[in-house]
Automatic annotation (TrEMBL):
Belongs to the glycosyl hydrolase 76 family. The lineage of its organism: Eukaryota, Fungi, Fungi incertae sedis, Chytridiomycota, Chytridiomycota incertae sedis. One of its GO terms (molecular function) is mannan endo-1,6-alpha-mannosidase activity. GO terms for biological process: carbohydrate catabolic process; fungal-type cell wall biogenesis. This is mannan endo-1,6-alpha-mannosidase. InterPro entries: 6-hairpin_glycosidase_sf (IPR008928), Glyco_hydro_76 (IPR005198), Mannan-1_6-alpha_mannosidase (IPR014480). Its EC number is 3.2.1.101. Keywords: Glycoprotein, Glycosidase, Hydrolase, Signal. It catalyses: Random hydrolysis of (1->6)-alpha-D-mannosidic linkages in unbranched (1->6)-mannans. Residues 1-24 form the signal peptide. It comes from Caulochytrium protostelioides.
């Protein structure tokens, strides 16, 4: 950390002399709770500005994959947790209610609507998993027993998460030793997709179980046992290597027919799961695993020299955002996960996480955001230019959330970061750590952790030239 700021600063000043740049970037002092809170609120409002309210609760699917809409609503709820600003709750909660068919209370429209949803509308196991994690975030913000608005008392955020968890589990079978399928439609034998067991379906199920283990402690042991079963299968199936790298999935027509591509969201979602299982159990096992996956993921998805998060498609400019088969947005899942792990991990890894999130935020603000804080999801390299699109903003929002979350954690803890994490649990709203001028009950003048080298961040951003 100590070495990062001088490097960035030096680089920034150097480039500045060569190419003086208009002060177009959005100005934010990352050390200031008020500034950062305002920026987070602005980024969230920008995300909502792309949304036209509709009965399905989704962004236009010509712009955004269905599952990404689910991620967007969760990111707004997490922003509420981080900065105490609930001004977008009505959108996030209303969209979750609409997408789960109000009184039906699942994303597949109950038993009757299933086939249409699964086969024709393409709601696969990973898709509903992403949405269900946002329901879990709703439970963390509003309470584990809180009903979803307008649904009476029968449907809670927790029950929506749990129903989806069980629906995903229906799609586990013994073929190739276990695993949850990617698609929900087994009927089309010719489609290779229908036999594919994707890593993300499995890590999402683990993450959902881990969140439920915290929200529903009475059933914790069952969630934990199932999480271990899935995790063991990732190893026994060879989808996870002995260096904690994750391949994308396998075609079950031949069990070792593994698709070897590595995406940051696979490891990100696993870190998310392992961090929450550690929170739920306090068993060292989960933390050891989470740390190992963290080390492996950061070695793969952080640009060396700059410490900026980047997906592997970025250096070769093959992310293909235009036709929706992106890839540069995957690291939003990773950014979010490292912030979940942050309060539990050791000081050295905390410093690493802080370095990576800080460098990524600084790079995004300097390269990829316009003066109104509409930001690209690519933060380094040739692709890092301002972009105004909901997909980009969803990814940036996850980085913003990760950054405000670790700032809030250090802020609450003063110099002892380890016990600072209060962002989860059924009293999330009242017990949470809020940040900045949106905070309820925190003095806005409260000081942040000295770990973030004071002043450096501000100077680099204000110069707007690295
Ligand atoms: C939910 O659907 C209703 C009915 O179509 C609509 O009036 C409302 O605006 C929608 N809410 C959101 C947040 O999209
Ligand atoms: C192996 O995977 C490829 C795609 O990577 C797929 O086209 C093929 O059908 C699979 N083979 C079997 C036997 O499942
Ligand atoms: C972990 O989860 C509990 C709820 O079970 C919550 O109260 C606590 O703040 C979380 N964080 C830590 C550091 O344990």
């Amino acid at each position: 950390m100590g070495r990062l700021f001088p490097t960035l600063l030096g680089l920034g000043l150097g480039l500045c002399l060569l190419t003086p740049r208009a002060m177009a970037a959005y100005q934010v002092n990352l050390d200031s709770p008020d500034d950062l809170g305002n920026a987070a609120a602005k980024a969230a409002a920008n995300l909502v500005s792309f949304y036209s309210p509709n009965a399905a609760g989704e962004y236009s699917q010509t712009l955004v994959h269905w599952h990404e809409s689910g991620i967007a609503w969760g990111s707004l709820l997490e922003n509420h947790m981080n900065i105490g600003d609930g001004s977008q709750d009505h959108v996030a909660a209303g969209a979750l209610v609409n997408a789960s068919f109000g009184s039906v209370g699942d994303f597949l429209n109950g038993a009757q609507g299933r086939l249409t949803q699964e086969a024709w509308l393409g709601k696969w196991n990973d898709d509903i998993g992403h949405w269900a994690l946002s329901a879990a975030s709703g439970a963390e913000v509003f309470g584990a027993a809180a009903p979803m608005p307008g649904t009476g008392s029968s449907h809670t955020y927790t029950s929506l998460a749990l129903t989806t968890y069980n629906e995903m589990w229906e799609q586990w079978d013994d073929k190739c030793g276990g695993g949850i399928y990617w698609s929900r439609d087994r009927s089309d034998a010719s489609a290779t997709d229908s036999t594919y067991k994707s890593t993300i379906s499995n890590t999402l199920h683990m993450a959902l179980g881990a969140r439920l283990a915290v929200l529903d402690p009475a059933n914790r042991d069952a969630y934990v046992a199932k999480g271990k079963q899935v995790y063991n299968w990732l190893t026994s199936s060879y989808l996870m290597t002995n260096t904690f790298r994750l391949y994308d999935g396998m075609h079950t027509g031949a069990c070792l027919n593994i698709t070897g591509t590595e995406y940051s969201y696979n490891q990100g979602m696993l870190i998310h799961a392992l961090a929450y299982f550690y929170n739920a159990t306090q068993e060292a096992y989960w933390l050891t695993q989470a740390n190992a996956v963290l080390d492996s993921a950061l070695a793969l998805f952080v640009e060396s020299g700059t410490n900026i998060l980047r997906d592997s498609c970025e250096p070769t400019n093959q992310c293909n955002q235009g036709n929706l088969n992106g890839g540069s947005g995957f690291k939003g899942t990773l950014a979010r996960a490292v912030a979940y792990l942050y309060p539990f991990t050791d000081k050295k890894r905390q410093t690493t996480i802080r370095t990576v999130l800080t460098a990524s935020m600084q790079a995004a603000l300097a390269n990829a955001c316009d003066s109104e804080l509409f930001c690209n999801e690519v933060w380094t390299g040739a692709g890092a230019v301002p972009d105004k699109s909901p997909r980009s903003q969803i990814t940036f929002m996850q980085l913003m959330n990760a950054f405000t979350r670790i700032q809030a954690a250090s802020h609450a803890a003063g110099s002892t970061i380890d016990n600072a994490y209060t962002g989860v649990g059924d009293d999330g709203l009242n017990g949470g750590v809020f940040f900045g001028s949106h905070a309820l009950g925190l003095p806005s003048a409260a000081r942040l952790s000295p770990i973030l080298a004071a002043g450096s961040a501000l100077l680099a951003i204000t110069l707007g030239c690295f």
